[in-house]
Design a protein that fits this description.
The chain has 228 residues and is an alpha/beta fold. It has one domain: 3-Layer(aba) Sandwich (Rossmann fold), CATH 3.40.50. The chain has 7 helices and 8 strands, in the order βαβαβαβαβααβαββ.
Length: 228
Amino acid sequence: MTVTLITGANKGIGFETARQLLELGHVVYVGARDVERGEKAAAALGTRFVQLDVTDDASVAAALATIEATEGRLDVLVHNAGILGDDGTDGPTALRVFDTNAVGIVRVTEAALPLLRRSANPTVVTISSSAGSFWAVNNPDRPEFHLPLALYSASKAAATMLTIQYAKSQPGIKFNALEPGATATNMTAAFGIGRPPEESARTVVRLATLGVDGPTGTFQDEDGVLRW
């Protein structure tokens, strides 16, 4: 069975991705910072739960140690945890946004690499955003052009770049970044936009279930490769 870990999976796109991968037969670990919310989500889905705060080295190490002890490997890693950081543009907020949206990817990936290398088809999917695409934010015809989220956008540009660099440095593992599409989640509630999370999760699932010869080092949305 395919062993999958999804960070920030107690709600939104992460929750729906967990549900859909579980239906495909994956052994899914719901990673969540808050124990109560994570356990509640895992119970509702029928998945497994690991406490995982992507901004905490000890939490990340403990989560991957639990998966190693139980499963012995990791086949799919989905970087879903993220924050908007729209409560100010200052140093402390910037540190918090980048620590979650970019540095957190490094923490979890580095801890997961030994387990991913034991998989016959290791795959990593990063939920990024075209808000971090230089092409999109400079295109007046794109909604990202008008999005006033400097820290979020910059952190997602970093997330995509990390994905590309990991794909180059880890040729035996597929790394792909994803623009999931405008989705109605708690994070986007203030904008009043977005489709149901289950629709966006389908693209995550597609990239999480690529075959051995699937693409790596790409940034995609539901229609294919995006410029960035």
